[in-house]
Amino acid sequence: MKITGIHPANGQKIEVTFSRNIDRVEPLTGGSDEQTYLAPAWIDIQVNGFAGVDYNSPETSHEAIARSIHAQFAAGVARLLPTVVTGSRERTLGCLRNLARARSTLAEGAAIEGFHVEGPYISSVEGPLGAHPREFVRPPDLDEFLAFQEAAEGHILLMTLAPELPGALRFIEKVTAMGVKVSIGHSNATIEDIQNAVSAGASLSTHLGNASLRIMPRHPNIMWEQMAEDRLMASFIVDGFHLPLSFLRTGWRAKGASRFILITDASTPAACPPGTYHLGALEVELHNDGSIRLAGSSRLAGSALALCDAISNLMRDAGVSLSDAIDASTKNPATALNLPNRQKGLGVGERADFVRFTLRDGRISILETYLDGQQVFHK
Prior knowledge:
Layout: E1 2-6, E2 13-18, E3 22-27, E4 37-40, E5 42-47, E6 49-50, E7 53-54, H1 62-73, E8 77-85, H2 89-105, E9 115-118, H3 142-151, E10 156-161, H4 168-177, E11 181-184, H5 191-200, E12 204-205, H6 222-228, E13 233-237, H7 245-259, E14 260-263, E15 275-279, E16 282-286, E17 292-294, H8 307-318, H9 322-327, H10 331-337, E18 354-360, E19 363-371, E20 374-378
Parallel strand pairs: 5-8, 8-9, 9-10, 10-11, 11-12, 12-13, 13-14
Antiparallel strand pairs: 1-2, 2-3, 4-18, 6-7, 15-16, 16-17, 18-19, 19-20
Helix pairs in contact: 2-3
């Protein structure tokens, strides 16, 4: 099969020959008025739910999960990590079992690259706790993690935790030795805690700039330390609510084009009309302004963001090029998780995950999405 489009990095029209993987990439000559871009399809490593579907309920039907994946195909996402947040042991196990069965049985299951477990090993301090339920926060427990991994059929790829908790450093060493990536997040860590966590194997910061103390020392502090630590890649929620522009721009300059990762942190109401929804045991509200907050509170509870809009927002708000913004949602998350055949963009041997899109007035509009060489969305 063949597909054509404009390469975002150089503006050259190209033709890609592929089956499940890319066989050949060739420049095309001759004029064309078509302004359709071709890029690797997006990878979202933190998504709690989408299109009215909650990944944090063990009762969520596989039909609903399939529907939510199709909604993400329409936003250009071909690979995702459904994310399970802090909850009871039983609920977390139930969610992971349900999602793992969906992964192995659904036709759309190939889009589920693995799972992200965010908590329960996080700070209980107000601010770092974020919207997570305090009653289920607890210290890292390797035996419990192994039970989680068994429920997930071995597909937990990413853990977010607070490295200051008792036993956290040993936990990081053990799970990273198993190939699981560890990210620092929802944390009230000291500078020493962060340095020790990185030395133990932590390699990422989760939604940097969020889930932290409202007031902290000018310096040193947890933000500056993670910004300055070149061994940490970092994910950011670029929805206009989670981060001020100054922090976003500083984060881009600190992490650079190769260590900055776009995520949605989308929750159940994403791609839905305003109203009340559930995220696990929590009741959340999608407001008319597009923000999602805990019911009756001003506290943010994920986002209503689509990843194609995050790319557009990063270009507009931080002055980032189209090519670099795409890397932040493709090459960089693949590199962070060491995903095979997704780290080189439109290169021979890479998986045939594509998006074709137009770009008008700085906004991306998805025309087609391909997963493993098969068209999964067409506008």
